[in-house]
# Entry
Amino acid sequence: KQWTTKLRYQNYGDWPTTYVAALEQQVSKAPWRLNYHIQPTTGLLNDPNGFSFFNGEWHLFYQTYPFGPVHGVKSWAHMTSRDLVHWQKDDVSLLPDSLLDSHGVYSGSALPVGDELFIMYTGNVRDENWQRQSIQAGAWLTKQKLLRKIPQALISQPPAGYTTEFRDPQVFVYQGEYVMLIGSQDVAQQGQVVVYESKDLLDWQYRGQLHFTEQQMGFMVECPNLVEVDGQPVMLFCPQGLAQNILTYDNIYPNTYVIGTALNMKNLSLEQPTALQNLDDGFDVYATQAITAPDGRALAVSWVGLPELTYPSFVDGWAHCLSLVKELRLKEGRLYQYPVVETMALRKHERHFNGSLTNETVLMSEGVSQSFELEVNVARHQRGALRLLANPAEDAYLEISFDTFSGKIEIDRSCAGEPFAEEYGSVRQTAVPENADLSLNIFVDQSICEIFINKGLKVCTLRFFPKEDQKKLLILSEETLKYDGKLWDLVALP
Ligand code: FRU
# Structure
């Protein structure tokens, strides 16, 4: 199929039902579909949107283009869950069906207000000359799951000094007022985050730029998201075109964060921000959205995929997924991310192992399902590697190598299956403290792998596309290595 602009922006209603049915059929039979991660029924998924707890349930929307694995005219699909782990999709969706969002219901957030869920999103509109307009629009979701768009624009255009690259509103309450952050580009082509305030959610006043770093944030900041973690404000955002001398990163665009000591709304600043850091040291995390849950936890969920890249599942008519829901913590000034405790309910069939090897490759497990959690513990002063989902010939696998002297960890997906995005390299590195014990909790689900190092001090998330015969778990070292661990099948029973 030739995905021309015309086709990508065709009205949803103009797609024949036979086309949709055939696509559903194709995707349902596709390899690499996931067992316990949120994925699109058909077509493309990108950013998580409107993550919230409302009316006794978790709500999570996501950006989607349902008609193919491309970035076409976007809408929001809706999922709910009682436990952050088992998610159900329903028919609620925010469609690009009004003059405020004719060319896409772009990313945004949600906030429970009174009896309803307030939703704020960016309406992407193009005129006849394909000039972009960026409108900030709203909607309400009732307890009966009826969606009602607010008919007028809440912010009809960017303030003076900004281009129409202006989107992804995050709404939250700060000292009794509604505050909104928006990702933007100023007329000097620099990425910024701007602040609005409102008393009633309808009338929004522009306050200015948020100061959360002294550095230049590339040409555009997408998906700004401020969340309190253990009493401190943490700002998550995606600076596009960020200079490598500000932060080294390997992906096309990074998902970054800074930690502040306090949010000062008088001078619109995050006080004493840390230097920029990568949220994830893997290959595919972007557009992370985080909220404060009613129980006080800071919860985050990421798009596992990146803009502008081609992934192997495209041939099967679908693309991308969301990460597990991760709890954020601050410990000794460092940000930790770890799957919420509810995730453990997915564990089935626990196996324990431990062993010792010297300059050899040992089979830890054979014939594993491709959806599992593997925990491996290695005491300090050892080196070795794991080869996950190795094939019978043991020449295809995802390799995670570790050196606990230097604290260096390396993920190599070059032999993990169908190659892709190789122009951005097939290896990622991360570091944990030197001369320290190491623990790895690795969540694999068919074609995604989320690696949590030292209980979330570092996270490396990636897609990989193995063949069906890749079912062995290997461990190896050129020296002497002692290890122990556990393995669980992960099953998301409906
Ligand atoms: C980030 C992003 C957002 C935008 C959305 C459109 O991936 O580009 O800035 O709102 O995706 O789907």
The first helix runs from residue 5 to 8.
